[in-house]
Write a structure and sequence with these properties.
10 strands, binds adenosine-5'-triphosphate, alpha/beta, 249 residues, Rossmann fold, 4-stranded antiparallel β-sheet, 6-stranded mixed β-sheet
Amino acid sequence: MTQTPRSPDAPLLLEVRNLHTRYGRVEALDGVSLQVPAGQIVSVIGANGAGKTTLMNSIMGVLPCSGELLYQGQPLQGVPLETRVARGISLVPERRDLFAALTVHDNLQLGAYSRRREKWRADLDDVYTRFPRLLERRTQLAGTLSGGEQQMLAIGRALMARPRLLLLDEPSLGLAPLIVRDILRIVQGLKADGVTVLLVEQNARASLAISDEAYVLESGQVKRHGPAAELARDEMLGASYLGGSNASG
Ligand code: ATP
């Protein structure tokens, strides 16, 4: 899989500076800083409980946090969720949060709830082109889809909001390796179409393989950062996150 070389001049789409998020006494994010250059896939890898979902929800604005969030150079603090969506930030949540009793088509339509019909018809066609399997199942209830199809639907729904920045929370969760590969190919396709992706994953090997840059999150703190290819070769990291000392492949 190919990766874009890091350009020192790539403008930052998102910058997170010294982010702190608490649940009562639990400090889930303890001064996280990271940068997401426009047009790249940046992954954040970490074990259960490292703070990955908290990071996504903080960026999206569904959790209160302190520190600085800059999107296209503008502060996000105090900006309501719907305005973040309107400015191009879209989250695919870890649990996918589909409406199980609604059809594929209706779930997708809800992803465009804030937009006028004539504007979203083209986006719906685009989602069905990207995911032919969703087109075949457009009248099927979301709750009856396979795990991989549900993940496609969750991504498709997020695309209906026309994101510039897609936040993907553990898309590989609970999926078989072949399906994970399909999903990650789709993510690469989004990058090719100009969508910037921040991906959090426990599946470090798979996410590093498609990412340009990566951060390692442990107990709410960034422990490592570098080009994804470099981290994938790192032996120490390999032993902890990649199931062995050789991370290639
Ligand atoms: P996982 O991969 O298991 O989803 P994660 O890296 O996404 O883990 P978070 O879900 O962000 O981690 O959790 C980070 C820390 O915050 C954990 O210690 C978790 O127990 C705690 N935490 C998360 N949500 C809450 C909550 N609603 N109330 C209290 N503590 C929470």
